[in-house]
Amino acid sequence: MPKIPERDLPDEFRSSLGDLAEIPRKATMYITAPPGDRIEKSRTRFREYVKLILVAGAVDYEIKEAKSPGQIKNFVMEEIVQCRRKAAVAVIAKIPEQEQFEIK
Fold first, then answer.
1. Contact 50/63 with Cβ under 8 angstroms?
2. C-alpha angle 60-63-83 in degrees, rounded to nearest 5
3. What confidence score (pLDDT) does residue 40 get?
4. Quick one: which H or E segment has residue 38?
5. Which ranges of 1-104 would DSSP assign to H, the alpha helix?
6. Separation of alpha carbons 55 and 70, rounded Å
7. Any signal peptide, and if so, which residues (predicted)?
């Protein structure tokens, strides 16, 4: 990925921008059927419009399809729970072992 020339950026942005190559380039796309229609219409619209932009921007993407109402909510909720569990395990791993089990 080409870097933006620093001379073109205002001073206040130079320090906060960092290296653009460090930014994760992955997105999760949620597709569901429009009310009263089938999922094929959403898939077609994704291929015609969204996929072209993601490919042109070199963004990796993952597609999750909801076949019933409320399924996207469940997908997002599960991802949040998994993320919080990983964060909790990472925090516990940093605490010394004898302090983990002490009751204060």
1. no
2. 80
3. 92
4. none
5. 11-17, 39-45, 51-56, 71-94, 97-100
6. 29
7. none
